[in-house]
Amino acid sequence: MNWHKERRVNEEGFLRHPANSNEWKEFDKQYPLFAQDSRNVRLGLATDGFNPFANMSKPYSMWPVILVCYNLPPWKCMKAVFSMLTLLIPRPNAPGKEIDLYLCPLVDELKELWVDGIQTFDASTGEIFRMHACILWTINDFPAYGKTKDTDNARRDLEAMNIRSNQHLRLESGKMRKPHARYVLKTPQRREFCKFLKSIKFPDGYAANISRNVSINDGKISGLKSHDCHVLLQRLLSVGIRPFFDTKVCNALIELSIFFKNICARTLRVSDLERMEKEIVITLCKLEIIFPPAFFDIMVHLVIHLPREAKLGDPVNNRWMYLIERLLGKLKKYVKNKARPEGSLIEGYIVNESMTFCSLYLRGVETSFNPNERNDDRRNDQKVGGLSVFSQKVRPFGGRKFILLPKKEIDKAHCEHMEELKLKSNENLCQRQEQEFPKWFENRIYGLREMGSLEATDDLHYLSFKPDVRVHTYTGCIVNGVRFQTKGRDNNRTTQNSGIFVSVEHSDCSHDYYGVLESVLELTYINCNKDEFNEVRWAVQEDQENLLSSDDEMDEDSEDEPPIYAVESDPTYWVNSRHDDEDSEEDNPLDDGEDEEILSDDSDGSDY
User: For the chain, what is the domain count?
Assistant: First the structure.
């Protein structure tokens, strides 16, 4: 509970936890007595409604009120196991303005915790102290409206304002026709965009399978969760829209996408937020030139305040709603008695809370607090200490096979260990090192061992004998808690874990390389020492935009490249952009495209 005071890294100009925010610091100034004891609890309050029944046609809305604790580290404070269900508003309809009446019991208890506090036992020190609590802020959800803003009335607004005459409604042959706007996808384009989304594969645990929510024939996307919308906006929109819109429309939408990507980062720089606060105004001005005035409601305007809100509060991931919605999904599973949904939910929650409390006192048993990680990189024969090449935290898995490694490949892989030896000595290094080093290193270690030198450690002695020509190959490995799989294994799965990203420093410059994992090699040395490498097929280094667009453009000569240490691999993913710059449309703001017939004057435009 005192992590935010004693263990938090306070780096000036960076926001990683609510304790870094201006509001937290201002609160400490106004209430110094509360801030003196770091064990006093700082809370966030969230509420939202959900339908407990599978049949969504039956109107019913339950409203849990949840408290989250910000004393905890950022990777714990929003977890379901550390959240508290304080009350449940029992009624079939949303409480509306009457929610204040239902919150009265909670408000009274919070006032008591703020004014009088409550005696609490501190298990870490064995002391009894008076704990106080406060509410820093609330977390709320705003209703989303899926209908388009390109309605008939929106076009009439353009005519009334005497702007964009090429988009005004037209009376032709007794029927009103609506010209095609530059920001609207035609039916074939919608289907093509849906094909793009259908082809997307994300790494394990990164996002849901969006392809299940895509209908290519209808050209529609439905049933997305809030996190799916975040991924679509921040990661996919900027790639998928390029074939369909002109440069000005694409640039404006890509800038908006990058803004949300940066604002949702786990670590924020104050300097970046100040820059984003200025740039988002320009981005919205670009959107005003493209979209009709009806598009710019209060929700769009709120985007301007997000950078300032992040400076006042903290990174968005500690305040956004979709983690609360994930908890609501868990609470929904507790409803077993459809006749008494509230009582059934509370009973299930109390049982879970009791089991969670008991698990704190269990040792040697897997509980909700100490579950085995899904991507556990520990192995039974893991070596501790010694050369880092023999103690990599890598756990290979899948499709273990034996292959014979050619002598050329043995020397090439062995030569990669030179980076490890540079830390000890730089003597006798030259341009012919790649051909001469393996034999030189073997003779050098042998000579040092004969002289009894302490420099010739056992690990270096084992390394000098080169690996066994019989090499284990695998189809995947887990490195630093991240799962990697070969391209061949990914082809038969709905997820993608074969993307490899490596950043290296050379001549005081940083170079980024992207590729796909072809194979995982495990080399065995004397005394059962093992070393893991990743064979990667690298992309052609043309420009970063193309590298992130398609996994088809790979370097055919990358087979001559040496493998990399498994621990050097960072994850990335590839998408097929289906984009050809030569086929993109030129900027033409006067291009009307095809007209669309309006069937009735009271149409809301939802079919467009």
Answer: 4
Q: Which of 466, 483, 514 is the last residue of a domain?
A: 466
Q: What is the pLDDT of residues 583-598, one digit of tens each?
A: 444 443 334 444 444 4
Model confidence pLDDT, tens digit, residues 32-64: 999 999 999 999 999 988 888 876 667 788 899
C-alpha distances in Å from residue 240, one per residue of 181, 233, 374, 457, 575: 19, 10, 31, 55, 9
In the predicted structure, residue 535 carries a pLDDT above the cut 90: no
Quick check: 286 and 255 in contact, CB under 8 A?
A: yes
Q: Within a domain: residue 602?
A: no
Specify whether 196 is located in the same domain as 307. Answer: yes
Same domain membership, residue 540 and residue 400: yes
Residue 352 lies in a domain: no
Other CB atoms within a 10 A radius of the CB of residue 442 amount to 16
Last residue of a domain, one of 252, 285, 318: 318
Residues 78 and 317: beta-carbon distance below 8 Å: yes
Domain match, 95 and 81 both: yes
**C-alpha to C-alpha distance for 11 and 192, rounded to whole angstroms:** 46
Judged on CB neighbours under 10 Å (0-12, 13-18, 19+), 58 is exposed
Q: How far apart are CA 448 and CA 329, in angstroms?
A: 64
Residues 484 and 426 in one domain: no
Please enumerate in sequence order all residues whose Cβ is within 8 A of that of 466, keeping only pairs 6 or more positions apart, or say none.
410, 411, 414, 438, 442, 525
Q: Which domain holds residue 457?
A: 407-466
Q: Are residues 490 and 442 in the same domain?
A: no
Predicted TM-score (pTM) of this structure: 0.79
Collapsed DSSP state (helix, strand, coil) of residue 313: coil
Residues 573 and 545 in one domain: yes
Instruction: Tell me the C-alpha distance between 77 and 84, whole Å.
Output: 11
Same domain, yes or no: 289 and 255: yes
Highest mean pLDDT among 275-279, 331-335, 378-382: 275-279
pLDDT at residue 15 is higher than 80: yes
Extract the runs of DSSP E, i.e. beta strands, from 133-262.
133-139, 170-172, 175-178, 214-215, 220-221
Residues, the chain: 608
Determine how many CB atoms are found less than 10 A away from the CB of residue 146.
8
For 488-526, the DSSP string reads HHHTTSSS---EEEEEEEETTEEEEEEEEEEEEEEEE-G
Collect all residues with Cβ–Cβ distance below 8 Å to 583 and sequence separation of at least 6.
243
* CA atoms of 542 and 537, how far apart (whole Å): 15
- Assigned domain for 50 exists: yes
| Strand 84-89 relative to strand 401-404, pairing | unpaired
E strand or H helix at 156: helix 152-161
> Do 515 and 500 touch, CB atoms closer than 8 A?
yes
- CB-based burial, 246-258: b 16+ in 10 Å, e otherwise: beebbebbbbbbe
- For residues 263 and 287, the answer to whether their CB atoms sit within 8 Å is no
Q: What is the per-residue pLDDT for 564?
A: 79
CB atoms near residue 503 (< 10 Å): 10
Torsion 400-404-406-410 (CA) sign: positive
For residue 337, the one-letter residue type is N
pLDDT in the model for residue 436: 63
Q: Please check whether residues 50 and 138 belong to one and the same domain.
A: yes
